[in-house]
């Protein structure tokens, strides 16, 4: 079955440093979504990427979808304490009506 | 904010009890899902539904069962709870076209 892997599992940064999490799928994806889950909370949708090579930005967050549509990344510039949480990617392949979540990357930010 | 609700938010019960976790959404979404998540860990899909009278098992085997008699309601039932069922259960729904998942706040189950 489809597998989606994320690295790193944990990332500790000083406030103001940049952060990147990577998502890799064993199969070609039709789209990929990113979610953020704050400690004790539930996942909240951030963005969806559909096109090969697509890049989208949300303020300090930059999302990329690989040319082969098998990998993606989320980059945060100048992290803030409000960025703390676990970031999940979720990949969907063409024929599946459901997404497969990655393991998540947990970000902690030291003020 | 999405209109998807889960009850109870927290539940502590003894082994062998039957429990039902409720999930309701008012967005008219056809697709609904149940995920199981241990603290700080990944989400595992345990059940999903594409519409009324449609239910499927997810990627992770689960002893729970679900039903979908109404579009807005997708309850999950454990006939006989065990300590291994201790976890957080997250319900989600999506518009058929976009696939963006809206999650409820979760039900944290502890089985003693």
Q: Give the amount of beta strand of chain B, in percent.
A: over 45%
Q: What's the N-to-C terminus distance of chain A?
A: 41 Å
Oligomer: heterodimer
Integer-rounded radius of gyration of chain A: 13 Å
Tell me how many strands of chain A there are.
Answer: 11
Radius of gyration of chain B: 13 Å
The number of helices of chain A is 0
How much helicity do the residues of chain A have?
under 10%
What is the molecular shape of chain B? globular
User: Count of helical segments of chain B?
Assistant: 0
- Beta-strand portion of chain A reads over 45%
The major pleated sheet of chain A works out as: 6 strands, mixed
Identify the overall geometry of chain A: globular
Main sheet attributes: strand count, strand direction, barrel closure of chain B: 7 strands, mixed
Question: Which class of secondary structure composition applies to the elements of chain B?
Answer: mainly beta
Order of helices and strands of chain A: EEEEEEEEEEE
Let me know the number of strands of chain B.
11
The percent range for helix content of chain B is under 10%
Low-confidence runs of chain B: none
Describe the structure in your own words.
Helix content of chain A is 0%, strand content 54%. Chain A contains no helices and eleven strands. The mean pLDDT of chain A is 94. By secondary structure, chain A is mainly β. In chain A, the strands form two sheets. In chain A, strands 2, 4, 5, 9, 10 and 11 form a six-stranded mixed β-sheet that branches. In chain A, strands 1-3-8-7-6 form a five-stranded antiparallel β-sheet, with no helix packed on it. Chain A has strands spanning 4-7, 10-14, 19-25, 31-37, 44-49, 55-58, 61-65, 71-76, 85-92, 100-101, 105-110. Chain B has 112 residues and is mainly beta. Chain B has no helices and eleven strands. Chain B has strands at 4-7, 10-13, 19-25, 31-37, 43-51, 54-57, 65-66, 76-78, 87-94, 101-103, 107-111. In chain B, the strands form two sheets. In chain B, strands 2, 4, 5, 6, 9, 10 and 11 form a seven-stranded mixed β-sheet that branches. A four-stranded antiparallel β-sheet of chain B has the order 1-3-8-7, with no helix packed on it. Chain B is globular. The chains are: A mainly beta (111), B mainly beta (112).
């Amino acid at each position: 079955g489809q597998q989606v892997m994320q690295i790193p599992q944990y990332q500790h940064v000083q406030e103001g440093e940049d952060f990147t999490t990577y998502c890799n799928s064993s199969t070609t994806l039709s789209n990929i979504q990113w979610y953020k889950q704050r400690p004790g909370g539930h996942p909240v949708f951030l963005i969806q990427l559909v096109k090969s090579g697509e890049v989208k930005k949300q303020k300090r967050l930059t999302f990329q979808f690989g040319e082969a549509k098998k990998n993606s990344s989320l980059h945060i510039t100048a992290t803030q304490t409000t960025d703390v949480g676990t970031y999940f990617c979720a990949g969907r392949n063409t024929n599946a009506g459901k997404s497969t979540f990655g393991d998540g990357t947990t970000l902690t930010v030291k003020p | 904010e999405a209109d998807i609700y889960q009850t109870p938010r927290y539940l502590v019960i003894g082994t062998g009890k039957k429990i039902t976790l409720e999930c309701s959404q008012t967005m008219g979404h056809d697709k609904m899902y149940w995920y199981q998540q241990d603290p700080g860990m990944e989400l595992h899909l345990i059940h999903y539904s594409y519409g009324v009278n449609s239910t499927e098992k997810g990627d992770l085997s689960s002893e729970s069962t679900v039903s979908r008699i109404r579009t807005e309601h997708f309850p999950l039932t454990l006939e006989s709870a065990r300590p291994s069922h201790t976890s957080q259960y997250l319900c989600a729904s999506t518009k058929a076209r976009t696939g963006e998942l809206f999650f409820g706040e979760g039900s944290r189950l502890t089985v003693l």
